[in-house]
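Input structure tokens:
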């Protein structure tokens, strides 16, 4: 065996079907596209959601609701998460940067602290918003709540 007689394994390659090359090829005429109609034309593409002329789903179902453009969305972080983070890194002050480094939030997200779980250590917490229970729990152990 040498480079001059290398070839792919038997059956591993197929020749492309050459359509529209005259009647002698057996693939001329309508070129495997059937007769007439939009699907036989070049450049045809059906609309997204087209159901063959039946009234499509997005037009059958009524419109309702709206999106509030002034909605402020927060990433929720619970007190137990903050407690674990503070214990793991020996922190007295937990800020947004600590949460970003730990991978809980991205730099663009706003953070809201929720009151699920317990705080045992005195921790100062910095965030964009706090629930009433979280605020009470932080202050109960002697910590500070800092709204950004």
């Amino acid at each position: 065996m040498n480079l001059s007689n290398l070839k792919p394994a038997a059956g591993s390659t197929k020749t492309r079907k050459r359509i529209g090359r005259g009647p002698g090829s057996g693939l001329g005429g309508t070129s495997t596209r059937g007769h007439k109609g939009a699907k036989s034309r070049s450049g045809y593409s059906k609309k997204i959601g087209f159901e063959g002329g039946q009234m499509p789903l997005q037009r059958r179902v009524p419109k309702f609701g709206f999106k509030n453009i002034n909605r402020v969305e927060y990433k929720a972080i619970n007190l137990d998460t903050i407690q674990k983070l503070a214990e793991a890194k020996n922190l007295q002050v937990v800020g947004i940067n600590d949460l970003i480094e730990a991978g809980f939030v991205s730099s663009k997200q706003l953070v809201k602290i929720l009151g699920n779980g317990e705080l045992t250590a005195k921790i100062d917490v910095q965030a964009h918003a706090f629930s009433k229970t979280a605020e009470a729990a932080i202050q109960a152990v002697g910590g500070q709540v800092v709204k950004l």
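The longest helix spans residues 79-89. The helical segments are 57-60, 79-89, 96-102, 132-140.
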